[in-house]
Design brief:
The complex is a heterodimer. Chain A has seven helices and eleven strands. By secondary structure, chain B is of the alpha/beta class. In chain B, helix 8 links the parallel strand 5 and strand 6. Classes of the chains: A alpha/beta, B alpha/beta.
Chain lengths: 238, 409
C-alpha cells in the first residue's frame, strides 16, 4: 500500500448482497485501520456500477437466491474483481458471496448457476437449512485461532485442490463436510455472519496486514474479546 | 352472524377455557393456546368463524399491531369488532380472537407476513392492508423478495381490495396483482432493501418518495391518499391534520392506511379520525411507566427499519436505555445490529443491557458511541437521575421489561 494514499476498501453490491449486517465487516476494517493510523476510504459499489480494480480489500456479503444470481451475472460481465485479484488485492466473501466465487452454485430451484471461478469450490443446495452458532478451529496457516459466527444457509460446498479449508468445525455445519469456509492466496470465503469480522477481529487484521505489507501493532480488543469469549463459551462443549 | 355448527361451537368454547386458564395461571395472555386447542378439535374452525363477517387483514414487517389497533378503533364506530389485539398473528391467534367476539360483524386481524396467503384463503377476507417489507429476523423469517412473490400469487384472481403503501417498491410489487388497490403514499425511511427493481432486478432511481426502474416499466403508482408531514390528504384533496396521541412518523403512516381503510367501509375521515386519536398505547408500546421517580417511555424495535423509526420517536435530549435479546422470537442472529446506524445517539447518555448486551456494546464501540454496560434492566434504571428516560428494546427484551411492570402497561 503506497503511504501517500488511503487503504481502499471496496464493498461489492450492497444493494443486492447485504442482508445480514454485512456492512459491519467494512466498518470493522475501517475502525481497526484508523486505530493504527492507517487512513481508509470505503467505496460502496452498487450493482448498476462498475467494480473498480484499484481497491486493496474487497468485500461481498450474503443475500437471497434471486439477488445472488443477479450479482453473479453482473460480476461475470464486469470483470473488475478478477483484475483486482490479479493485481494482488484481497477478498472476503461471505455466504451467498462465498458461493459466487466458486465455479458453480445452486439457484432458487437448485439449478446450477455459473460463478466467477476465483475459488476452486462447487456449491449446491443441501437437504436442510443450516441455522445457528458455529465454532471451528482455524487453519494454522492463518494463525490457528477459533472461528466464531452465525450461519444461515442451505448451501453445501465441496472444496477442490486449489483451496484449503479455513477451519475444522467443532459446532455447526459450514461447508457440510466437517470444514467451514476456505482460503486461497488472499481470498477468504466463509458462511459466517455475525458479522464475521466482529466475531473474529484476528481475521480483520489478516486482511489489514496483507494490505499494509507489515504485521500490525495490537490494539485494545476488550469488547471484541468479551463478545468472543461469551459466544464461544455458549456453544463449545465444556 | 349465523349459528356455528355444534363441533365448531364446542371447539371454540374449549379454546376459550384454555385461554382463561392460561391467563389466570399467569402463563400468558391466552390468545395462542386457546386457538390451538380450538384448531385441534376443529381444523376448519378459522374458516367457520370468519364466515359472514367483514374482515380486514393487516400485514407488514413493522406496524402490524398498531395499525390493527387503529383500524379496530375506527370500525368500532360502526359496530362490534373482533381483533387479535395482543399480536398473536398466526391462525391460532385468529381463531382465538374470532371466538371471543362471535357476534361481531367486523374483524380486524393482524397477520404474520408468511401466513398471509394461507389466512386469506381460509378466511376469504375482503380487505387487506400492506404497509412495508424489510429485512427481519432472517434466521427464521422468510426472505422478503420471496415473501412478496407469495403475496402476488395469493392476491391474483381474488375478489379482494388491497390498501398498500406505494412508497415501498417491494410492497407495491407484492400488491399489484390484486384486482383493486388503493395506493397510499405513507413514506419509506428505511430504503436498504429496495435499491433494486423487484420485477427485473435493475436499479431503481429514487427521488423523494418517488421511484422508477431504470431498465423496465415498473414504477411507483400514483397514490390517492398521501401522508404529508402531520396530515393526511384524502382523494378529494382535503387535508386532515392527524394530531394523534401515538408519537412518531411511523404511526402517522399507520394512521394514513387506517383512514383509507375506513373509507372503504363508508366511514368518512371526520368520523374515523377522532377514533384514531383515542389510541394512546398499543400492547405496552409507547407507554410511560414510573419507577422511583424515573419516567420511562417504552419503545419496541425489532429490526433495522423499526430502530430507525424508534430513534425518530425518541427525544434526543434524554438518556436512553437499549436492551437486546436473541431468543427465538427476536431472531437468534444478532448481525442485524450492524445495519442500524447508532451514531444518531452520539451526545446522549446511553445504557446497554439485555441478554446480548455484548453484541450491542461492540456495535456501539465501532460506531464511536460512548455507553455504559449494565448487567440488568434494574441496574440501568438505577443508574438514571430522576426524570424522563427513553427505552428501546427488541421483542423478548421488551416483554421482559413489561413483565417487570406486571403487564400493567
Amino acid at each position: 500500500m503506497p503511504s501517500d494514499s488511503a487503504l481502499r476498501i471496496v464493498w461489492i453490491y450492497p444493494d443486492l448482497l447485504s442482508t445480514y449486517g454485512d456492512q459491519g465487516n467494512a466498518l470493522i476494517l475501517e475502525q481497526r485501520a484508523r486505530k493504527r493510523g492507517i487512513p481508509v476510504e470505503t467505496v460502496y459499489v452498487r450493482s448498476a456500477d462498475l467494480v473498480p480494480d484499484s481497491g486493496d480489500i474487497y468485500l461481498i456479503g450474503g443475500g437471497e437466491d434471486r439477488p445472488q444470481i443477479l450479482a453473479a451475472e453482473r460480476l461475470r460481465r464486469d470483470g473488475g474483481l478478477e483484475r483486482a485479484i490479479d493485481r494482488g488485492a484481497s477478498l472476503l466473501a461471505v455466504c451467498a458471496g462465498y458461493q459466487i466465487m466458486g465455479s458453480v452454485f445452486g439457484g432458487e430451484e437448485g439449478q446450477p448457476v455459473a460463478g466467477l471461478g476465483l475459488l476452486d469450490i462447487e456449491s449446491s443446495r443441501g437437504p436442510a437449512r443450516a441455522v445457528g452458532e458455529l465454532a471451528a478451529e482455524v487453519d494454522t496457516g492463518l494463525g490457528g485461532h477459533m472461528l466464531t459466527g452465525f450461519e444461515n444457509h442451505m448451501g453445501v460446498t465441496r472444496l477442490g485442490r486449489g483451496v484449503r479449508p479455513l477451519s475444522r468445525t467443532v459446532v455447526g455445519t459450514g461447508n457440510g463436510d466437517g470444514t467451514e469456509g476456505c482460503h486461497a492466496g488472499k481470498i477468504v470465503g466463509t458462511y459466517l455472519h455475525g458479522p464475521a469480522l466482529a466475531r473474529n477481529p484476528w481475521l480483520a487484521d489478516v486482511f489489514l496486514s496483507w494490505a499494509a505489507g507489515y504485521p500490525l501493532a495490537p490494539i485494545d480488543d476488550t469488547w471484541y474479546d468479551r463478545l468472543r469469549d461469551e459466544r464461544l463459551k455458549a456453544v463449545l462443549p465444556r | 352472524m349465523t349459528q356455528l355448527p355444534l363441533r365448531a361451537q364446542l371447539a371454540s368454547a374449549l379454546g376459550r377455557t384454555a385461554a382463561t386458564l392460561s391467563r389466570v395461571t399467569g402463563r400468558g395472555d391466552g390468545s395462542v393456546i386457546g386457538g390451538r386447542v380450538g384448531l385441534i378439535l376443529e381444523p376448519d374452525l378459522l374458516r367457520k368463524l370468519a364466515a359472514d363477517r367483514k374482515l380486514v387483514l393487516v400485514s407488514a414487517t413493522n406496524g402490524k399491531t398498531t395499525t390493527t389497533r387503529l383500524i379496530t378503533s375506527e370500525l368500532q364506530e360502526l359496530g362490534e369488532v373482533a381483533t387479535n389485539a395482543f399480536g398473536a398473528n398466526m391462525p391460532a391467534g385468529h381463531v382465538s380472537a374470532l371466538s371471543q367476539a362471535k357476534q361481531a360483524p367486523f374483524a380486524v386481524l393482524e397477520v404474520d407476513e408468511k401466513y398471509l396467503p394461507e389466512v386469506l384463503d381460509t378466511t376469504g377476507a375482503s380487505v387487506i392492508c400492506l404497509m412495508n417489507l424489510s429485512r427481519d429476523q432472517m434466521d427464521r423469517a422468510a426472505e422478503i423478495w420471496l415473501l412478496a412473490q407469495k403475496w402476488r400469487r395469493a392476491l391474483a384472481g381474488k375478489d379482494v381490495h388491497v390498501i398498500a403503501n406505494c412508497d415501498d417498491p417491494l410492497v407495491t410489487w407484492g400488491a399489484s396483482t390484486a384486482s383493486q388497490v388503493t395506493w397510499v403514499s405513507c413514506g419509506q425511511p428505511w430504503k436498504e432493501d429496495s435499491w433494486c427493481c423487484p420485477e427485473c432486478g435493475g436499479p431503481l432511481d429514487r427521488k423523494g418518495d418517488d421511484w422508477a426502474c431504470r431498465e423496465c416499466t415498473f414504477r411507483r403508482p400514483e397514490p390517492t391518499w398521501v401522508l404529508d408531514d402531520d396530515a393526511v390528504i384524502d382523494p378529494r384533496g382535503q387535508r386532515w391534520v392527524l394530531d394523534l396521541r401515538l408519537p412518531g412518523r411511523a404511526n402517522r403512516a399507520n394512521a394514513a392506511i387506517a383512514l383509507a381503510t375506513a373509507e372503504l367501509f363508508g366511514l368518512p375521515a371526520e368520523r374515523a379520525l377522532p377514533r384514531l386519536r383515542e389510541v394512546t398505547s398499543v400492547a405496552g408500546r409507547y407507554t410511560m411507566v414510573e419507577r422511583d421517580g424515573r419516567a420511562l417511555r417504552l419503545l419496541l424495535a425489532k429490526n433495522p427499519a423499526g430502530w430507525l423509526e424508534a430513534f425518530e420517536v425518541s427525544d434526543p435530549g434524554l438518556p436512553i436505555i437499549l436492551s437486546v435479546n436473541a431468543q427465538g422470537p427476536d431472531g437468534r442472529d444478532t448481525s442485524w445490529l450492524w445495519d442500524v446506524d447508532f451514531r444518531i445517539l452520539n451526545g446522549r447518555p446511553v445504557y446497554v443491557t439485555g441478554e446480548r448486551r455484548l453484541d450491542l456494546a461492540l456495535r456501539l464501540d465501532v460506531a464511536g458511541v460512548p455507553f455504559q454496560l449494565c448487567e440488568s434492566f434494574d441496574e440501568a434504571v438505577a443508574a438514571q437521575a430522576p426524570g424522563r428516560v427513553d427505552v428501546i428494546a427488541n421483542y423478548t427484551a421488551f416483554q421482559q421489561i413489561r413483565a417487570e411492570f406486571g403487564r400493567a402497561v
